[in-house]
């Protein structure tokens, strides 16, 4: 009697960030990406000490709580606080290396970044190892093009790029996919500036997160 071939494991995606605070500019493009490539779950990875950015204003616990509030009613999202347990900088490649060991060698795994991060990816720690552990899914960002800084980097992008999202579930890692996600001009910097000036942020982030920010007296 013939046996059915084993089903491919579902593509699982991770999305890192400082989330200081988390806002619709994080959540809505990722929701659109999930629909575009067929993601059932996206795990948010709040950074502890981001190597390339100023230190967060909110504490690690406050940022984790804001993420938990923002995704409480959305089954697409989960949160992993492993990077917040570190006292050293959060290097994405090291987290992905650990996750790959946990998930095994055959699980399709993807890491979500913005177009701005793609263009500066060559400045990341061990950036050339990233595709050894995962696919990269790239969100469109306002004001950023698709052209890499050098011809060599552009060749690297084209060598790994796939245009058919189905390919992402057929291999565990190694591909780069440029998504057609909405361009939302929302930034955590804008939210902090609004808070400093007493301007409402209700249109930029979930109300539950806004209430928590007010209760904690953040970003004054």
TrEMBL record:
Coiled coil, from the record = none
UniProt name for this protein: Probable nicotinate-nucleotide adenylyltransferase
Q: Which organism is it from?
A: Serratia odorifera DSM 4582
Q: Which InterPro entries match?
A: Cyt_trans-like (IPR004821), NadD/NMNAT (IPR005248), Rossmann-like_a/b/a_fold (IPR014729)
Q: Which domain of life is it from?
A: Bacteria
HAMAP family the record matches? NaMN_adenylyltr (MF_00244)
Record keywords: ATP-binding, NAD, Nucleotide-binding, Nucleotidyltransferase, Pyridine nucleotide biosynthesis, Transferase
What this protein catalyses is: nicotinate beta-D-ribonucleotide + ATP + H(+) = deamido-NAD(+) + diphosphate
Q: In which pathway does it act?
A: Cofactor biosynthesis; NAD(+) biosynthesis; deamido-NAD(+) from nicotinate D-ribonucleotide: step 1/1
């Amino acid at each position: 009697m013939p046996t059915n071939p084993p089903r491919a494991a579902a593509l699982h995606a991770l999305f890192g960030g400082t989330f200081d605070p988390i806002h619709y500019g994080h959540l809505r493009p990722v929701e659109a990406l999930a629909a575009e490539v067929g993601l059932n779950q996206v795990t948010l990875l709040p950074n502890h000490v981001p190597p390339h950015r100023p230190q967060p204003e909110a504490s690690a616990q406050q940022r984790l709580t804001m993420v938990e509030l923002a995704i409480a009613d959305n089954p697409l999202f989960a949160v992993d606080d492993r990077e917040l347990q570190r006292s050293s900088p959060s290097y994405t490649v090291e987290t992905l290396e650990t996750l790959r060991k946990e998930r095994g060698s055959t699980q399709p795994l993807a890491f979500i970044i913005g177009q701005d991060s793609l263009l500066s990816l060559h400045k990341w720690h061990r950036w050339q190892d990233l595709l050894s552990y995962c696919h990269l899914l790239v969100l469109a960002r306002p004001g950023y093009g698709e052209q890499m800084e050098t011809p060599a980097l552009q060749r690297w992008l084209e060598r790994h790029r796939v245009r058919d999202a189905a390919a992402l579930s057929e291999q565990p890692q190694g591909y780069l996919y440029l998504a057609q996600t909405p361009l939302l001009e929302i930034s955590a910097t804008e939210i902090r500036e609004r808070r400093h000036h007493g301007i409402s942020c209700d249109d930029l982030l979930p109300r539950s997160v806004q209430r928590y920010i007010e209760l904690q007296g953040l970003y004054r």
